[in-house]
Amino acid sequence: MRTINIGIFGLGVVGGGVLDILQKNRQIIQARLGADLRVTRAVVRNPGKSRNLPLEDVKVSDDPDSILKDKSIDIVAELMGGVDLARQVVMTALNGGTPVVTANKALLAEHAREIFSKAYEKNVSLGIEASVAGGIPILRSLKEGLAGDNILEICGIVNGTSNYILSKMTDEGASFDSVLAEAQKLGYAEADPTFDVEGHDAAQKLAILANLAYGTTLHYPDIHKEGIRHITPMDITYARQLGYTIKLLAIGKRRENMVEARVHPTLISKSHLLASVNGVFNAVFLTGDNADATMSYGRGAGALPTGSAVVSDIMDVARNLLVGIGSKVPPLSVMEDRLTQLEVMPIREITSEYYLRFQVRDHPGVLASLTRVLGEKNISIQSMFQPSQSDNPDEPVQVILITHQAKERDVLNSLHVIAPMEFVMGETQLIRIERF
Ligand SMILES: NC(=O)c1ccc[n+]([C@@H]2O[C@H](COP(=O)([O-])OP(=O)(O)OC[C@H]3O[C@@H](n4cnc5c(N)ncnc54)[C@H](OP(=O)(O)O)[C@@H]3O)[C@@H](O)[C@H]2O)c1
After folding, report:
1. Pocket lining: 105 vs ligand 1, CB cutoff 6 Å
2. Is 88 inside a domain boundary?
3. Does 69 qualify as catalytic in the annotation?
């Protein structure tokens, strides 16, 4: 039986998971692949660190060249994270014709053009399944399962930390800060949670999903990112009373020569499948013009779920090596000469329905003033909701307006006009609504 030698960069959560799976499921993998996968080298920051991993046959070093210059290495797995060294490692391996498997969403989102172009140019396999939604094989579904479909819409819950926080806030009526503190204690949120709760992590995953769906390389910084810090228990309660749940969604839609690519808290019907994706779980809802709606659900992170995606990529790449081809599926779904450079539609240009919560003085005529300004900007109101309020005149009353489809630019312009009005007692909450 042929042996395929793997060099792993990183023996942390994901690298450790990969080693465990390769040991635990060795017989199954051999039976399915017809070859033996062996990790022969690993590179880490601190080779002296004690690790509870099956490393008996692995040479561990802190020198990247120990893998990159070893001609016996058949596949490089980049599982370190970070961008600079990871970029050098991946580019060097691809340049030298060595297939690469990576879980690095930051690298793939921020340097998509450079990395994918190199994989095309060298006709080398590049496995990226673990970079989006950990254990859910969503990228393979997109590239292969839905290969004959025009992808009309991508809608994902792809950040477990934010979903955990929003789920807990919904279940317990607790504030963002208290749930975040609890999530940090339980290890579901980082000490610095910014990357997760401000939408950056979800935006990187959306960039990868949209690139595969539309055969493009979006300019990552142009993706609109809005986090969940400003969502209050009040909004969650009112949304629920109106028939909605609030989720942090990563949304991608093709719009002629542009792509809507945006991450933000979103009201979705509480009867939609995505509304029942709770806790740290992830789900990606894809709509194809033929397959119609599909949803994949599972764990978005963790040693074994993410390791599972890495190992499946390694097996896929190994199969290409065994039959002596570069890659039978193009890295970004489309042939190199069909790769486009679509632009991200500016958020002000999108059209959506909106939940607007105004905090106003309880005076006659306030509602008329609000609807007049909105009407002047072509925004029509679908429904109005005024929850029961305290009798204290110093406290604002809450007025919730749900709009019909409106241009975001018009909505922002009206809020700009309303903000200085004398009856306004606090900042207006704006949350987009998505219907499926
Ligand atoms: N964790 C997840 O559930 C998950 C899910 C999906 C994708 N990912 C992605 O997978 C990648 C790895 O994440 P992780 O959670 O496994 O990270 P991690 O637990 O922090 O492990 C990182 C590993 O890389 C090594 N490393 C870091 N910087 C290095 C450097 N400059 N030179 C050599 N080695 C270096 C570390 O060495 P030492 O051990 O010596 O410090 C460590 O073994 C990231 O791109 C992440 O975004 C992670």
Report:
1. yes
2. yes
3. no
Q: The domain that contains 124 carries what CATH number?
A: 3.40.50.720
Out of 118, 143, 168, 205, pick the active-site residue: 205
CA distance 109 to 220: 6
| Burial grade of 98 (CB within 10 A; 0-12, 13-18, 19 or more) | buried
d(CA 211, CA 252): 10
Q: What are the tokens at 334?
A: 């489309």
Instruction: Tell which atom from ligand 1 comes closest to the C-alpha of 13.
Output: 16
Ligand 1 proximity of 301 Cβ (cutoff 6 Å): yes
CATH of the domain at 411: 3.30.70.260
pLDDT for 141 equals 96
Distance, CA of 81 to chain centre: 16
The Cβ of residue 375 has, within 10 Å, a number of other Cβ atoms equal to 12
In a domain, 343, yes or no: no
Instruction: List the domain range (segments joined by +) for residue 416.
Output: 348-433
CA 109 centroid distance within chain: 10
Six-digit token pair at 171? 């279940």
Q: Is 80 exceeded by the pLDDT of residue 209?
A: yes
> What share of the chain in percent tops pLDDT 90?
96
**255 shares a domain with 232:** yes
Do residues 151 and 279 share a domain? yes
Do residues 97 and 122 lie in contact, with contact meaning Cβ atoms separated by under 8 Å? yes
Q: How confident is the model over 305-338, as pLDDT tens digits?
A: 999 999 999 999 999 999 999 989 999 999 999 9
Which of 8, 19, 20, 45 has the most ligand 1 atoms within 8 A of CB, as the residue to mutate? 45
Number of domains in the chain: 3
Contact 215, 340 (CB under 8 A): yes
What spacing in Å lies between the alpha carbon of 103 and ligand 1's midpoint? 9
Claim: this prediction has a pTM higher than 0.85: yes
Q: Same domain, yes or no, for 167 and 232?
A: yes
Ligand 1 atom nearest to CA at 82: 45
CA–centroid distance, 128 to ligand 1, in Å, is 15
Task: Tell me how far apart the alpha carbons of residues 247 and 281 are, in angstroms, rounded to a whole number.
Answer: 12
Whether 103 is in the pocket of ligand 1, judged by its Cβ within 6 Å, is yes
- Which residue from 9, 14, 192 has its CB within 8 A of the most atoms of ligand 1, so it is best to mutate? 14
Residue 170 belongs to a domain: yes
| pLDDT at residue 393 is higher than 90 | no
Ligand 1 site-directed mutation target among 8, 79, 104, most atoms within 8 Å of CB: 79
d(C-alpha 109, C-alpha 132), whole Å: 11
- Same-domain status, 317 and 231: no
CA of 82 to the centre of ligand 1 (A): 8
